[in-house]
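step: validate -> pass
step: tokenize input -> pass
step: predict -> running
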Amino acid sequence: MKNIFKILVLLIFIIKPIFVYGANLSSYLVMWWFPNSQFSTLTPTKEMCQNCNPDTWIIEKLDLGIGVFNTVSILKGCAKYAFAPQFDLTHMLMFATEKYNYTIDVVSLSTGTVAGTFTLDVSPGTDVDAFQPELIVSPDGSRIFVSWEDGPDYTYVTEVFDGKTYRKIVKYASSLAISSFSNDGKYAYLIGLKKDWNVPVLDLSTMQMLKAIPLPDTVRGMIEGNQFASNIVFYKYNPTVSYMYNIDTGALSVSIPTHEGCDNSFLSPKATWLLCAGKSQVDAYNISTGNWAAVFTTTTEGAIISWANDHTFIYNTTQKLIYFDIKQNKIIKELPIIRPWEKPGWKPEVGK
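step: predict -> pass
step: emit ->
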């Protein structure tokens, strides 16, 4: 069950980190860059580190307006942490201390200090080091979901914590697992490990189950994709097609014939356009008509990290930022990315 859930998370969230700078750095190695984040983490390796502390992580944020990274915090003493950082839109890092025990630290990206700690309620006989917990944070930071296989019978358990106080809210032991959130932080979408083709919707403010979306025959068998606010995208292969479902209205979009290499799906801020992103190509579709609208291609693999407006997305190739306008079907601006740590003698300074 653990492997099944990991596959679902990767397909739905697409949170696989992108290693982008390692081969070109003079002093530091960028460990993590998340597709929807403007943050990256630098850390010196033992092989590369001569006059530096290999337990220090540098948190950098990319300024989308000028293409320059700025140091926002310096986190020291990272050797005690075993859990790789997870970035989220609330600008936090999550760590498990030492190996995998039951206590997890919440580290602020802005200050580089531990903002809080929470402890998992595990049953005797649970080996969290062998079966490492999955940790997911809602976009508004109000809820932290941690899932793991509990006890000697490997019952799947999900525990929910308050994102500000880090107190436990509720603990679920069922065949349902968190799959994704609405971008406004209001809803959590669940997925049944027993495929009943319904998608339960959880209200994050009340932690009450609102409804279960009964998927029509045209959508059954689809894999859930990314979402914006109360809209959620479903897509499947053979033939490759996508639909958008609105949680509030129950409306299902027209069939959108997305291409086969759609590894990531994105919605524009006003849910006007659906982006189907592969390794080096992004196709844009008009959601109201289902028609193909534009295509962006690049010879360098990268990621969509933000939107300038509802019809212009920002693509990061790790060497430059590319602004692509869907309405004009062309690149309207390119900015080189300036990486100050590649310059001789660079020392990170917060706010510089």
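step: describe -> The longest strand covers residues 68-75.
step: cleanup -> pass
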